[in-house]
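Before going further, learn to read the protein records used in this course. Taken together, the C-alpha cells spell out the fold as the letters spell out the chain. A record is reproduced here so that you can trace the correspondence yourselves:

***
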Amino acid sequence: MPRGWFITLEGLDGSGKTTQINRLAAWMQRRGLKPVVTRQPGGTATGDRIRTLLLDSGSTPIASKTEMALMFADRAQCIAEVIQPALDAGKIVLCDRFTDSTEAYQGGGREIGSQTILDLHRLVCGDLQPDLTLLLLPALEAGLERARRRNDRQTAQNGADEGRFEREKDGFFRRVWEKYREIAAREPDRVIRIEGNLSIDEVHEQIVEAVSERLMVSGKTASS
C-alpha cells in the first residue's frame, strides 16, 4: 500500500492554526477524504499528560533542555501511536505542530539552536518529514494578543490554563518568529508561508489552494 500523506500546520500561538486545521479537515471530508487529525503536544493519552505539564502556567520552572526533551517524548509517542500507523495505512494525517515548532520555540526562542533539534529529530523521530507544511505568519503583535485573550477566556470558562509560553517576553517570540522564517527559507519546497493579517476565509482559501495542488501532484484520490 502506498504511504499516506503528512501535512503539518505551524505558527505562533494565536496564528489561527486550530481553526484552520479544523476547516481543512472538514474540506477534505466533504471530498470523500478521511484525514486523521492530531496535535502536538498531545494527541495521545501520554501526550496529553505531557501537554498539561508543558503548557500549564502553574508548572514549576522547566529547564530549556527538559522542555525540549518533553516535546520529543510527546512526538515520539504520537508518531508511534497515531501518525506512522495512519501513514502506513495510506491515510492523510493533519498535525497541529511538529518538529518545526520545537526548532522555532526551543531552538530559536530558548536559544538552544537548530542543530540540536535536527539531530534529535533524526534520532527520536526517525527523521520523519511532513510532505507539506503550512506556516501561518500573521503580524507578531496581533497573534500574541489573540493568544493571550484566548487563554484568559479558556481559564475563565473551564479553568484550563495553557498560557505558560504566552507569559514569555516579546524578545522570546521575536526569536521564534525569525526561526520560523529561517526554516521556511531553508525548505521552500516543503513549507508554504501564509503571511499577513488575513481573514479566516482568506487563509483557508490559500491553504486549500496549496493542498489541492500538492494532492493532485501526489495522485491522492477521494478513496484515500
